[in-house]
Design brief:
heterodimer; A: 291 residues; mainly alpha; three-stranded mixed sheet; 15 helices; 5% strand; B: 223 residues; Phosphorylase Kinase, domain 1; Rossmann fold; binds S-adenosylmethionine
Chain lengths: 291, 223
């Protein structure tokens, strides 16, 4: 009887190829001595193995669907944009302070201040704010032209953020319709980032989903016996935010329960059952709040 | 690696410090920011112990059996190829099968393989060796660095299939990935017992101060 080992570089035999009975060498019918003999033959083709291996690896890596990865990266891009926007907006406020003191004092919203500086002239801004006599420096137009330029660049970061946000919602509707309907696009993306993949969300117990993003607190709980955290990223969910402090843990648990079911449906079938899931979730949250 | 054996790995001095270095298979390029050292007209690459667990082991006196220039190596958890690049230098006429599951890091691994010719990137899960049974061949050295909860089981599964009878194996254990609530020393003791059921001899080597709470286990004589 002959044995054949099917390798990526070709077929290798022990015994005669013409033998009537040829059985395949498999991990299940394993024998290390035989494998060493076969390997010795295969090794002669070492350059071919390396070339073929690289070819297969490239094929494999470029043939995957990276939607999940794009969602995760877009979510990271939003976080970083937010940080950068905050940082630059603070600088911009300081830059504009001497010329537009009232604007800087009264308008807290960064986006609004950026837009006003970008699109409006000094007189217009002051009259919009209802200021008759401003404390601002009476500079010439060319002295504050630079502010407009800077505001324009920051405005672009807001645009990046919006585009990434839209991208996330749209992609999530396709690959995780149930999950994103319950958690909302932004929280879904963050949970996905922490879990690493939709697959891991689907096989994760609800209690783990509940604590995603609270890893540090959980670690302190396990090693030093501090209080067990009740929620991680889910803290940002509107239903948790809307609940009384002492009910928040329970609400987070209920959401996590539904998310766990949703992740499984999304991973295995993608059938949209979000309406039912949300209804059931809201009912349980109401009950929990009553108690 | 034991001294005086494979000429492609050497101990030398760099900026007044003792370092290990490997003769570059693709001279002129630093792979991960390591220094390039010229020795007797040949280019060596510093093997940085803070970046590579095997280098950390060597710095701490680990005595690994020799790898020859045509050895076959199975490396589980290759990542972007930091350590793989040094093994590739050492087994210059051999082969190194570099198994890695996460796509993001494998772009660099594939480029490294293209530049060198003795690296076979295997984009599979080390927990499913059947998936690469038609790629990886019997190996002289099996090394694993994957930081997974069931990594010992994965290691043993791979050794059973791919480690030559005359070969040796090594596993890097990060105590935290096995169980964050237990003391590293206890975990290492348990791992050692588990390995001793399958190997005649198991030699631990901790990696302080280069890597925190890590331990290498050199395994000799498969069952
Ligand atoms: C600590 S890094 C390895 C660093 C590398 N050994 C070096 O020194 O250059 C661990 C790697 O193992 C990979 N990994 C984890 N589980 C794996 C598995 N089951 N199969 C293959 N690779 C795995 C991870 O993706 C990660 O890239």
């Amino acid at each position: 009887m002959a044995l054949v080992y099917r390798h990526i570089t070709g077929e290798y035999y022990i015994g005669s190829q013409e033998d009537e009975k040829v059985s395949e060498f498999l991990p299940s019918s394993f024998d290390i001595s035989l494998f060493e003999r076969l390997s010795k033959k295969v090794f002669k083709e070492k350059d071919k193995i390396a070339r073929k291996g690289i070819e297969i690896a490239k094929e494999k890596i470029s043939g995957k669907d990276y939607t999940e990865d794009l969602i995760i990266q877009a979510s990271g891009l939003i976080d970083e944009s937010d940080k950068t926007i905050n940082y630059l907006a603070r600088r911009l406020r300081r830059l504009a302070l001497t010329i537009y003191p009232e604007l800087c004092l009264r308008v807290d919203d960064n986006k609004k201040i950026v837009e006003m500086l970008l699109s409006k002239e000094k007189e217009e801004i002051n009259s919009l704010l209802g200021i008759k006599k401003s404390m601002g420096w009476k500079c010439q137009k060319k002295d504050c032209e630079f502010l407009k330029e800077a505001a324009g660049k920051i405005k672009e970061l807001f645009t990046v953020r919006e585009i990434a946000s839209e991208f996330i919602s749209e992609k999530e509707k396709r690959i995780m319709p149930n999950f994103s309907a319950i958690a909302g696009p932004s929280i879904s993306a963050k949970l996905l980032s922490h879990a690493g993949s939709l697959r891991s969300l689907a096989i994760m117990p609800a209690s783990t989903i509940q604590l995603l993003g609270a890893e540090k607190a959980l670690f302190r709980h396990i090693t030093r016996g501090s209080k067990c955290p009740k929620y991680g990223i889910l803290f940002q969910h509107p239903a948790v935010q809307g609940a009384e402090k002492k009910a928040r843990g329970k609400v987070a648990r209920i959401i996590a329960d539904k998310l766990s079911i949703a992740a499984r449906i999304d991973f295995f079938s993608k059938e949209d059952k979000s309406a039912e899931l949300i209804k059931e979730m809201e009912r349980r949250i109401k009950d929990a709040k009553r108690k | 690696m034991q001294k005086g054996s494979n000429p492609r790995v050497k101990q030398t001095m760099l900026k007044g410090k003792k370092v290990f270095a490997t003769e570059s298979l693709a001279p002129g390029k630093s792979v991960y920011g390591e220094s390039l050292i010229s020795l007797n007209g040949k280019e060596y690459r510093e093997w940085v112990p803070f970046r590579s667990k095997i280098a950390a082991g060597l710095m701490n006196g680990l005595r690994m059996p020799e790898l020859s220039m045509d050895s076959v190596v199975l490396y589980l958890g290759a990542a972007s190829g930091t350590t793989v690049s040094h093994i590739s230098d050492i087994v210059s006429n051999g082969l190194i099968f570099a198994v890695e599951v996460s796509p993001h890091v494998t772009y660099s691994l594939i480029s490294l393989a293209e530049a060198r010719g003795n690296i076979v990137p295997v984009l599979e899960d080390a927990n499913k060796p059947e998936e690469y049974f038609n790629t990886v061949i019997a190996s002289d050295f099996v090394f694993q660095d994957i930081a997974q909860k069931n990594q010992v089981e994965i290691f043993l599964k791979n050794c059973r299939l791919f480690l030559k009878q005359s070969g040796f194996a090594m596993i890097s254990i990060k105590a935290r990935s096995i169980d964050i609530s237990k003391k590293p020393r206890r975990i290492f003791e348990e791992v050692r017992k588990e390995l001793e059921q399958r190997f005649r001899e198991v030699k631990p080597c901790t990696l302080e101060p280069f890597q925190k709470d890590h331990c290498l286990f050199l395994c000799l004589g498969r069952e």
